Amino acid sequence: MSRTLIRNASILSMDPAVGDLARADILIDGDKIAAIGPGLQAAADEMVDGTHRIVMPGLVNAHIHTWEFQLRGIGADWVGSRDYHANLHKKLATYYTARDVYLGNLLGALNQLRNGTTTIVDWCHILRDAEMTDAAIDALEESGIRAVFARGTVKPPEREGAVPYYKQPFPRDEIHRLRTGRLGTDDGLVTLAMAILGPDWGEYDVAVHDIRLAREYGLFNSAHTYGRKGKRVVEDGYPRLAREGLLGPDHNIGHGNCFDDAELKIVLDAGCTITATNLTEMLNYEKPAMLGRLVKHGATPSLGTDCDPYFNSSMLWVMRHAFLHQRELDNRSLFAEGNWPAKTQHSTQTRDAIHWATLGGAKAFGLDKKTGSLSPGKQADLIMIDTRGMNIFPANAGGDPAHIVVMYAETSDIENVMVAGRFVKRDGRLAFDAGRLARLTDELLASRLRLFQDGSFKSVPVERGPQPGRFLV
Confidence band (pLDDT; 50, 70, 90) for 471? Predict the structure, then answer.
């Protein structure tokens, strides 16, 4: 196995046992971190200069619909889930082929790597059959990203004589095929989970069936849950699931904004995790993202980018806005209590947001023993941020690394990205064949235009595609 030694970097480890180190080295042996400390005396096959760089864990995107990548730039003015479902699930998604899924997942995953995300939870709710499923997995594996592939199901328009999606239990044969086949182990870069309807989007018996199926095969399961009264398929679904012992740390909730305090306590007491997609929630929903409310209950939020049709799916964006959004709520609460300006540091800090975007996401899907922090023995999933550029300068002269990462760093500052000890971005460029990438971008553009045409979707005309080699560099 090859050994890589990163020298003289500023280390933001997110591991209390390691701490932050102003000038230190990281030794990577194969796919794992072997040692962290100042002046490591170790032989290595490659030396990497970390001077003027911040090295930190790769970001963990705990909720993204990667297949939507070719539908970017169409949804920011939609109103809530009503327009999202009408335009995507009930229209454009019905025209997707397996090749469309492959293209969206591959370029979407590469874009995540480019933005400093080393792990995604691919909440893939476009899949009609095994061919589409395998295409999605093929793309994730080819990209080199670490991924929890949350196999989901489609939500097509209701048709006379057909069983509506919310009455359909998860297809057992697909989970059996995957869990006894290509995703039969949890040791690979791509592992399996189930993206289920849950009681907000499916009938109660369907939710019970799906959770029990996930448990039977030892899988995490995740459900979209807004908790909005009067809009759920099953109003008391989560309390009922809790009473029957069907909730636990293996159940992840996406969003959950509208849970009242009693229901929130029920799901957290059961051990469930909640992932905030705060940009989507700020855009479309009437309640704040689940950040500070979770912290008050002693739980750790995780973060996701959610939907590419709305905005740039960068975890740097999500992390920054999560910090600012919660800080605004903190300020308002302190003012209402007569404690403004704050006399103590009880408000949300930049380091909290990094914790949510790294270890928080890893813990939500049981990956915290592998990734989420820079710790000896963990997988070498890391990013190197060059602090010399104008986005950051002169904060690099003695500035707090956490503050720099959250409030200044952009994609252009992410110089290197490593997953399992392998550089997937190096010197500011993806480690992916440039010629093939150019061909894929042309094919993805053609996919987008065909989907718009087949779905009779009104969009801005495109006269020509991107220049070859210009995309994702």
Answer: very low
